[in-house]
Amino acid sequence: MDTELRAAGEEDLLFLVEALHKTFLFLSKCAEGPYYEGFSALSVDAMGTYALEYLDTRKAKTLILQRNGEAIGCIMGKIAPSQIGAADIGLVGWIGLCYVDEAHRGGEQCTLMYRAMEEWFASKSISTIELSYMAANESARSARSAWERLGFEPLRVIATKSIGKGEA
């Protein structure tokens, strides 16, 4: 199979929005609570605005993974302040989405996309990369394992507890 990794452009916006939509729908089914319910309520316009931010080549890069000419995955990265503001480490590379269509999962597609993104961050003098994933995601264990194989270590865990609506 012919696999190619290329820079995304505005012509890829529909694929990026579909990838975000599928991801958010999946996450909204992973668990209950306001963090997950909000994912299913995101509008197409909101997802399009989010994706366009990652197409701004002044501070971001989005890559499309194609197989036989068909887009099957993407990774979205941007240069941004650290999510841990108190750390005062300045700008970092932020991975906003790493997605592969379900039919094409199970190989090294994410690793291929991540390595290319890491090279881009390094070319921009970025020395730290951050990302996040939802712990309740059924595949979070495999996602966590994959990210750990790539050298990521959990730094901060945000835990939540639902005490019911309207309770004091």
Structural commentary:
- The chain is an alpha+beta fold and 168 residues long.
- 35% of the residues lie in helices and 22% in strands.
- It is built from five helices and five strands, in the order βαααβββαβα.
- It has a five-stranded mixed sheet with strand order 1-2-3-4-5.
- Strand 4, helix 4 and strand 5 form a beta-alpha-beta unit.
- Helix 1 runs antiparallel to helix 2 and helix 1 (13-28) packs across helix 3.
- The longest helix is centred in the N-terminal third of the chain and has 16 residues, at 13-28.
- The radius of gyration is 16 Å and the shape is globular.
- The protein starts with a strand and ends in a 19-residue tail after the last helix.
- The mean pLDDT is 84.
Describe the SSE topology.
Blueprint: E1 3-7, H1 13-28, H2 34-40, H3 44-53, E2 60-67, E3 70-81, E4 91-100, H4 109-123, E5 129-130, H5 140-149
Parallel strand pairs: 4-5
Antiparallel strand pairs: 1-2, 2-3, 3-4
Helix pairs in contact: 1-2, 1-3
Task: List the main descriptive attributes of the protein structure presented here.
five-stranded mixed beta sheet, 5 strands, 5 helices, 22% strand, alpha+beta
